[in-house]
Amino acid sequence: MKVTTFSELTIDGKLTLTRGGSSKALFDFYGAEMGRWFHAQRAAHDAIMVGAGTVRADDPELTVRHVAGPSPLRVIPTNDGAIPPSSHILTDGRPTLFAIPAALSAEVRTRLSTHDGIAFMECGAMTVDLRLLTQGLARRGIGSLMVEGGSRILHGLFAARLVNRIVIKHIPVIAGATDAPTYLEGASMDLSRWQVVEWMVIGNVGVAIYEKKED
Question: What global pTM score does this model have?
Answer without folding.
Answer: 0.92
